[in-house]
Amino acid sequence: MDNQSLTISQVADMTALPASTIRYYDQQFGEFLDISRGKGRRRCFSSRSVDLLLQVHGWLKNEGLSLRQVRTRLGGTRADAEQEHNEAGQGWQAEVTRLRHEVSELKAIQAHILNILEKIVSKTGGG
Predict the structure, then answer these.
(1) How does pLDDT run along the chain (127 residues), one tens digit per residue?
(2) How far apart (Å, rounded) are the C-alpha atoms in residues 69 and 76?
(3) Which helix (H) or strand (E) holds 43?
(4) Dihedral over alpha carbons 93, 94, 97, 103 (to 10 degrees)
(5) pTM given for the model
(6) Residues in CB range of 73: below 8 A, 6 or more apart
């Protein structure tokens, strides 16, 4: 479905949203929904459009957000996605740093254990 363009009736069937609701969401949030227009000004939906429609529906119906609150969330989705990406990158960097430190500590413990073993072996006359 990624590169496929869907009609409003296909989207209605997929999402169980009435076509009238989909049109309403397009009127209210069209600048955010990535719904293009095809021949005869028919709406053409991408998979991203469908995902956003379902998100909008959830915010309105399940969370009880107002139209203004949904617009605010939609307006922030691009910036939020970029921020999440940056934070995830920083999180991985911190985890790599932590793991490197842990490996260093484990190597020190290993060297200490080997040193003890060498002392034991030399005292017992083995090897």
Answers:
(1) 445 789 999 999 999 999 999 999 999 998 898 889 988 889 999 989 999 999 999 999 999 999 999 999 988 755 555 565 566 566 677 777 888 888 889 999 999 999 999 999 998 876 6
(2) 11
(3) strand 43-44
(4) -120
(5) 0.56
(6) 59, 65
